[in-house]
Fold this sequence. Notes:
- The chain has helices spanning 8-17, 28-44, 67-70, 111-114, 116-122, 125-133, 162-165, and strands spanning 19-22, 76-80, 104-109, 139-147, 157-160, 174-179, 190-192, 204-208, 216-220, 247-249, 256-260, 265-267, 278-285, 304-305.
- By secondary structure, it is an alpha+beta fold.
- Strands 1, 2, 3, 4, 6, 11, 13 and 14 form an eight-stranded antiparallel β-sheet that branches. It has a four-stranded antiparallel β-sheet with strand order 5-12-7-10, with no helix packed on it.
- The radius of gyration is 19 Å and the shape is globular.
Amino acid sequence: MLPTSLTPTQISTYHRDGYLILPSALSAETVSALLSETHSLLSSFPLSTHPLTTFSTGETSSHVGDTYFLTSGDKIRFFFEEAAFSLPTPSSPPQLTKPKERAINKIGHYLHELSPPFRAATLTPLHAAIARQLGFRDPRVLQSMVICKQPEIGGRVPPHQDSTFLYTNPPSAVGFWIALEDATRGNGCLSFARGSHRRAAVKTRFVRKEGGEEGTEFEDVEGERWPEGTEREYEGDGESEKEEKYELGEVKAGTLVLIHGNLLHKSESNLSKKSRFIYTFHVIEGRAEYDGKNWLQPPAKGFTRLYQYQ
């Protein structure tokens, strides 16, 4: 039987650890439908009119910040793996070295509104119930993505906090991360620094460059750095030199992972022959301040309300 809400023990685990793994949260039929929709999107998007925008995790080059990315908040767009291109030469620009279906890093960021299968899998009574149990008063879905983690070229994602990229004042982001395929050590599953949401403040945020200049950058957080009611391990802004230990989160397809916005988590490269497709969407508190600095700006009708679908 599929879950309809969290148990008291699961809620306690989430608050203690900063994440919660909920196996078999989606039916096999739903997972199959989402995978089918993903493959349809990958095969049907036109390569001839694509600007060949890559998505960088920030380790080897600057984070993406072109117009194609910055205007994707109310669209379904496709972002390539950096490793899917050959190195440029004096006489030739980088060339795509993989079929387009095997070269995309992620699809985003409005699947939860524009794709019927993903909309149906996002705006569910279970997700509304979870949001209510986690204390949301007006939860809003602000972005959704398929992360493909392609075989052999799926890039490493360094330790990060989701609230850095989806900042509200005070921080409120929670990630709903759904495995569409088995995620293992071999194909780049997530790893979590258990309890780091109570040690690590959100110190920087990902914003649009000022002055009308195209691009993105990081800036220091001037507002609140902790969500309301956070029970910290110690006072201050997480300046401790503590070296975090990361625990693997190997999961089966259909698993839902809840991720606190302050939690440090990461994933390694996928050098295997198997893809690691996942679907993720993020929820923020609609009553928190969400300003015009953020890279992702709300569509004309605002971010999607979750409670109306309960």
